Amino acid sequence: MFHRLGHFVVRRAWWVIAAWVIAMIAIAASAPKITAQTDEASFLPKHYESIQASVLQEKAFPANFTPSALALFERNDGAPMDASDKDAMAKIVQGLTDKKIEHVEKIVPASEQSTSKDGKYALAPIAIDKATQQSDEFGEAAKKLRDEGKSLTSGTNLKFQLGGAAAQALDQKESSGAADAVIALATLVLVVIIVGIIFRSVLAGLLPIVVSLIIAMPAANGLIAYATKAFKLESTPVLSAILIVVVLGVGTDYFLFLAFRYRERLRAGDDRKEAVANAVGRVGEAIASAAGAVTVAFAVLILSSLGMFKALGPALAIAVVVTAFASLTLAPALLAVIPARAVFWPGKKWMNEPKDARFLALGRLVQKRPALVAVASGGVLLALSAGALGYNGTFDLAGSSMPKDKESMVVQDKLVNGFSAGAADPSHVYLTTTGGGKLDAGAFEGFAAKLGGVPGVATAASKPQLSEDGATADFTVLLKNEPSSNEAIDTLTKLREVAHAQAPGGTETKVGGLTAVYKDINLAMSHDYKLVFPIAGLLILLILGLQLRSVVAPWYLMASVGLGFTATLGSSTLLFQNIKGEHGIMFMLPILIYLFVVAIGTDYNILIIARLREEAREGRSPREAAREALRHGGPTVAAAGFILAASFGTFMLAGNIFMLEFGFAMAFGIILAAFVMAMFFTPALTALIGRAAWWPGHGDAPGAGHAPVGGSQDAHGLPEAAGRR
Predict the structure, then answer these.
(1) d(Cα 343, Cα 206) in Å, to the nearest integer?
(2) How far is it, in rounded angstroms, from Cα 58 to Cα 80?
(3) In angstroms, rounded to a whole number, what is the distance separating the alpha carbons of residues 441 and 424?
């Protein structure tokens, strides 16, 4: 099949190139505009309690709002505020209201309830149009509030600072506004330089950019937009930066798979077009299988409970399919029309068969000591995996994504000191009748006392707000810990248990608020781990089995990938929690490791195992096949792994702890996948297991492969007319 595809592309190279350019322009120009979603609650299904509580709040208390921003007032000298300060504060709030800042719906004056016990701090909650939360207008409203507030405070004894979700969105954008550009530029430069050095060529370094970034990326973005609109998926703001690295990283990997084999065929004596066709025929199945495994791993996230991953998975799956198709058609078409000397210019020794001394030495080590290599490489993965036992997830998205000296972070710290840590985002317990009628107000105080007695609760309002029909009561509960902390989530769990158990007869409760959202995200992720991972594993296992025609090899390939996952998570935990001293690492990191290390890392295993089978088909013993697979496939895996790891490493330049954790985990995981799993663990196990690795098929039997385009094979699987240099 892939020999025929290679032959088709070579004969119609210019038509293939023109078709790609026209299709890319048409798709990119006509794609719908998609707005990224940043509200955590919007990523949860409606059956979770926090979402049901939000719906109940909107129905029973339509005039209420969760503050989008918080204006924090304090004296410049740090002393408690007196009557004149409170008068000045009221004038400032009124002045802000009179400014009629666009999208600002309401500014509530500070009250006794929103003043700290020591009298040093006062809060004015601010409502901003919810419809702007997913747009730049949300942060822009915060910027105008901040600027106007500071201007109105000038000449008074007061200091004005803005915190809350809108202020955090503004500060986050300013602190990492250039992150996407930095990541894209750094990744692009890395690919051009490293590929150029590998092939000692200028054009070879640019071709992956042309195929992946200039052609495949716009086409993929357009198709993602169409799919998002057609299937009503959410969109996440992290997609843009991740998509750049995935498309360019995967595209460069597949280009290297093709280019190394293309150069090998040229050295074997094929002419340019024959070399391209044979290269596609030889590595096409490996590229397609690798892309299939990655696509399945991504696409299965459509089953996720969380909208972020439900959107991220299919989007990346589409991107990989487009990139793989471009690698199998557009890349060979370009190689077919560009003279080989131009592709590898200004290098002069590209036609000389290198000795590959390092990789030949590694191959001989695996050939002679497969058991030792398997135990040593597997031992490294197991040792690093032990660190995963200490993994602790954290939901502090804002604190992990911007410096602590940003104003919104300063406000958050002052809220902890002046109020309870949960003052910025109180939890709400909604008590409502189940049979109609009004609530019995006589039961409120006792119910509130039960809520206030939950360990970790700072205060629970004994006089709740009642809805107009008297059927629903809102008990505001302040937690002692910061809303996104694990301690607050544990408190919320107990609060729900007490609220449900102690609800008066004929009533039911729903607990909502930001901490409740995080609790439900935690529950949703536990569901995903039990559902998504096993299904993805089985589907990848099936793809490997079909590619290798074996039921043995896929199992130890999946076992090695599983070890790669736990080793990556363990390494990240050891570095950031044990060495750096963070109280936890981002809650979404395990799924991101699954997305990139497990999915993309499978590429390298597939490439090596495909080369092992190819060498076995040429009549070599299992140990000899391992030696030759490392000799010829090792440079490709090393180059591809190094480039992709370096590409992910660029995320560490973004300037916040989340991107630092993400960049390290992805880069280190890819290094493990390429340099430990694919180059040592997999070939060593295959050499040990021997021909049984291909049972029950006969994929390793001499002559089992297809002849390359353009002639019959000699003993080495090469065209008889070509021979081997």
Answers:
(1) 10
(2) 36
(3) 28
**Cα 327 to Cα 446: distance, rounded to the nearest angstrom:** 68
Do the beta carbons of residue 582 and residue 574 sit within 8 Å?
no
Q: What is the pLDDT of residues 434-447, one digit of tens each?
A: 887 889 888 999 99
Least confident of 2-11, 255-264, 302-311: 302-311
Partners of 71 in beta bridges: 124, 162
Summarize the confidence of residues 202-215 as an average pLDDT. 92
Mean pLDDT of 115-127: 88
C-alpha triplet 271, 213, 134: angle, nearest 5°: 160
Q: 262 vs 13, 253, 268, CA distance in Å?
A: 16, 14, 10
Rounded to whole angstroms, what are the CA distances from 68 to 121, 125, 126, 128, 370? 19, 8, 6, 6, 61
Report the sign of the C-alpha dihedral through residues 369, 371, 376, 380, in that order. positive
Tell me the per-residue pLDDT of 235-276, one tens digit each, with 9 for 90 and over: 666 677 778 878 888 898 899 999 999 998 998 889 999 999
Between CA 313 and CA 301 the distance in angstroms is 5
State the SS3 of 466-526. Answer: ECCCCCEEEEEEEECCCCCCHHHHHHHHHHHHHHHHCCCCCEEEEEECHHHHHHHHHHHHH
Copy the structure tokens of residue 136.
């730049």
DSSP state for residue 707 in the 8-state scheme: P
Residues facing 510 on adjacent strands: 430
pLDDT in tens, 502-549: 999 899 999 998 899 989 988 988 888 888 888 988 888 898 888 888
pLDDT tens across 413-432, in order? 787 777 766 776 789 999 99
Residue 259 CA to residue 206 CA, distance in Å, equals 13
Q: Please provide the average confidence, as pLDDT, over all residues in the chain.
A: 85
Distance (Å) of CA 338 to CA 18, 255, 341: 15, 15, 8
Contact 516, 527 (CB under 8 A): no
Whether the Cβ atoms of residue 637 and residue 286 lie closer than 8 Å to each other = no
Helices (H), 129-178: 136-153, 165-176
Cα–Cα–Cα angle for 203, 287, 230, rounded to 5 degrees: 100
Q: Please state the length of the chain.
A: 725
Q: Where are the alpha helices (DSSP H) in 178-238?
A: 179-199, 203-208, 217-230
Tokens of 372: 């030792």
Q: What is the DSSP string of 250-310?
A: HHHHHHHHHHHHHHHHHHTT--HHHHHHHHHHHHHHHHHHHHHHHHHHHHGGGG-SSHHHH
Cα–Cα nearest to 715, from 706, 699, 702, 705 = 702
Distance CA 26, CA 35 (A): 21
* Per-residue pLDDT reduced to its tens digit, 464-485: 989 999 999 999 999 988 888 8
Q: Any idea what DSSP says for residue 87?
A: H
Tokens describing residue 365: 């080590």
- Tokens 């992946």, residue? 212
Residue type, 166: A
Query: How is residue 49 written in tokens?
Result: 């309690």
In angstroms, the CA 177 to CA 191 distance is 23
Q: Which two tokens stand for residue 575?
A: 């570095």
| Consecutive H or E run containing 711 | none
DSSP 8-state class, residue 127: E
Asked if residues 484 and 396 have their Cβ atoms less than 8 Å apart, the reply is: yes
